[in-house]
């Protein structure tokens, strides 16, 4: 059974945002159960950068990444995230900030120690934060000299 078949069957069988999100169990064939992989759900730019670092993994029935585009539905995101979260071979899940905002209601339910979920800032989300930090630093310097 291919990954796309699993995603289509799962997204058709459940309503979006239902409480049955964590009832989804998918059998993923693991080549070596001692190997923990890093999963990626992010936009194309972030995902390609992580591919260059060697994170990408793709086999017939499993891949550890999802390139999120504006046309990617919330159901596809939730299903792929839950497959990685429930799979026993993922140790870290990397999400970019916009994707984590879309999956906030699912992330609130995640209580397991593994996999570790890390939210990565992107160029568009880090700039407002950095500008605010710079403004606060300038304000503190002004107050120190007055």
Automatic annotation (TrEMBL):
The molecule here is called: GH24550
A molecular-function term among this protein's GO annotations: proton-transporting ATPase activity, rotational mechanism
Report which residue ranges the record marks as coiled coil. none
Record's family?
Belongs to the V-ATPase F subunit family.
Give GO cellular component annotations, separated by semicolons: membrane
Q: One Pfam family name from the record?
A: ATP-synt_F
Tell me the PANTHER family matching this sequence: V-TYPE PROTON ATPASE SUBUNIT F (PTHR13861:SF2), VACUOLAR ATP SYNTHASE SUBUNIT F (PTHR13861)
């Amino acid at each position: 059974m291919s990954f796309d078949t699993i995603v289509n069957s799962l997204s058709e069988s459940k309503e979006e945002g239902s409480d049955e999100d964590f009832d989804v169990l998918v059998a993923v064939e693991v080549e070596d159960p001692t190997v923990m992989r890093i999963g990626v759900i992010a936009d194309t730019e972030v995902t390609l950068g992580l591919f260059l670092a060697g994170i990408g993994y793709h086999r017939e029935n499993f891949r550890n990444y999802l390139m999120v585009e504006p046309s990617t539905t919330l159901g596809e995101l939730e299903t792929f995230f839950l497959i990685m979260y429930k799979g026993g071979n993922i140790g870290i899940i990397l999400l970019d900030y916009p994707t984590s905002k879309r999956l906030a209601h699912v992330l609130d339910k995640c209580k397991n120690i593994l996999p570790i979920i890390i939210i990565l800032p992107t160029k568009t989300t880090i700039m407002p934060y950095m500008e605010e930090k710079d403004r606060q630093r300038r304000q503190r310097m002004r107050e120190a000299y007055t």
